[in-house]
Amino acid sequence: MSKLFSRDSWSEIIEALSSNWFRTVMTAFGVLWGIFILVILLAAGNGLENGIKQGFSGMATNSMFMWSQTASQPYKGLPKGRRYNFKTDDVAAIKQNVPGLRFVSPRNQLGGFRGSNNVVRGLQTGAFNVYGDYPEIIEQQPMDITSGRFINYSDINEKRKVAIIGSGVVSTLYDPGEEVIGSYIKINGVNFMVIGTYKKTGQNGDPEEMQKEIYVPFTSFSQAFNMADIVGWMAITAKDGFSITELKQQVFDEIKTRHSIHPDDDRAIGNFDLYQEFSKINGLFTALNFVAFFVGILVLLSGVIGISNIMLIVVKERTKEIGIRRALGATPWEIRSQILLESVFLTIISGMAGIIFATLILAAVNYQLSTMDTSEMMFINPSVNIGVVVIALLILIVSGLLAGLIPAQNAIKIKPVEALRTE
Amino acid sequence: MGKNSLHVLKGINFTVSEGEMVSIMGSSGSGKSTLLNILGILDEADEGAYNLDGTLIKNLNERVAARYRNKFLGFIFQSFNLINYKSALDNVSMPLYYQGVKRNIRNEKAMHYLEKVGLADWASHLPNELSGGQKQRVAIARALASDPKVLLADEPTGALDTKTSYEVMELIQGINDEGKTILIVTHEDDIAHMTKRIVNLKDGLIIDDSTVKQVRAKSAANV
């Protein structure tokens, strides 16, 4: 081991490698290229992943949405095809009986896609989605509050008729430059004071439609639009460390018992599991990463085979030199370790060069991307983390050793007499 | 190495004592190089015993053989066998490197031996910048570097002209005068007569082993 750190063995290696510069460089290029491809592929996969996940940015991905449908099986004397609604009591019951949930937000909705005009302000009218919501919804479906504030619990408790409107609503109902906060809009004939505006980002859904929403407190919504204790649907988020996919069955069971639904009636409750969708995308990127590693390592392997080949030739060429060294008292191990070190050194140096080269390219790409608006792009911040680089280096060391193994073995197989006889 | 083994040496029995200078002569194929390789622990005899400085050399593994070569023996080859990409100094210090001697001590010693062969000024030169005689002198310095018991020379003057040959022989004689045991394989009569004892080989057998009056290379060169 002490040989590893002695200046002498390193100068031996440098001397041997620099005795044929051109060949050394050409050999090194194979590995350089391999590691370059590996890093670039991984970084590109990462960039794509970052881009796609930006669509989910801030969204609580450990969430599901659940709505009531019609009972498809008769139960407890109730007929099939029966309609029912979630109630506000259900929310409290779910919160109480299902552990591991972070948010249970009841929601109601008015208007809808291509609905008729339902919002009036002075002479302007527009058709917008109006939601009755709790303050937590902003944690589950993030939006930027561009002015004013979002709903709070005082609004809920006092059933204040206040509204937060999207930038699409503002541009339809207001003239440019007009003061929005504090003005009133009439939703289905009921006046609400505007207390905030928002803008949503991300690529999920129609970006234009997303700005045309109005949020009002859930309680005010129920009272103003005669919803009584009906809950349209719920957005449920699990705590970190819990999976909503695992918890949702408990939620369904709770609803089924409360609404006299047959325990096996899975069609009575509709749901959309965001976590499951997110996991699918995650799986895709795991696969993508795997492909990148696979391809990268294969390319690297061909580079390593190149090194192994050259080392074989080097050993052949230096048969006589090896013979001389052994006549002068070099042990087989000294010869073998020199060949191995040469191979590892060459692999690591060229691998490092490849990593540096790839890093420079990535830095250039990142610099280009930083000058652009990336919020709508599918490709952001292509990068590899240091762990991957360390793994790549380990692969390099191991492959360098492997590349040198056969040639080193060849080198000591030659007897000194035969080596010296070669003229 | 074919499957058919060829018995080159058929019964050699001789002893060289310390401080002797022996030449081994014989026509080509007589087995003189094989003998030298066995003496140099580069090759091993199928039968028989070889004692070097009281140590029986038999069935050594390569590691031990390498240590013995390094400690006991110095080699001088016909084709010099210097390492091309190393300077004269580095070539000379090579056996010391394998002894694990520290770099500065190694270079100091190597320099000392280069001075001894009169090539101190050429220390930083590569072998291909040196003449044949100079190369052989570097090789001699290298053989001496590890301060071996025995110097084995395989046709040391085979690739040199007469004048240079004599210069090299003069150097080797000087080393012998200092007490080193030297074995020289040669087929040149004049070179053989510059040693103190001539062993004649023919077909793997010693046909003649006689002490001769040493001809000094210096005086021979002046003839």
Describe the protein.
The complex is a heterodimer of chains A (423) and B (223). Chain A has 423 residues and is of the alpha+beta class. Chain A folds into two domains: 2-56 and 279-421, no CATH class; 85-258, no CATH class. Chain A is built from 15 helices and 14 strands. In chain A, strands 1, 3, 4, 5, 6, 7, 8, 9, 10, 11, 13 and 14 form a twelve-stranded mixed beta sheet that branches. A two-stranded antiparallel sheet of chain A has the order 2-12. Chain B has a single domain, classed as Rossmann fold. Chain B has helices at residues 32-39, 62-72, 88-99, 103-116, 132-145, 162-177, 189-192, 217-222, and strands at residues 21-26, 51-52, 55-56, 73-76, 150-154, 181-185, 197-202, 205-211. In chain B, a hairpin with a 2-residue loop joins strand 2 (51-52) and strand 3 (55-56). In chain B, helix 3 (88-99) crosses helix 4 (103-116). At the A-B interface, helix 2, helix 12, helix 13 and helix 15 of A face helix 2 and helix 3 of B. Chain A: Keywords: Cell membrane, Membrane, Transmembrane, Transmembrane helix. Chain A: InterPro entries: ABC3_permease_C (IPR003838), MacB_PCD (IPR025857), Macrolide_Exporter_MacB (IPR050250).
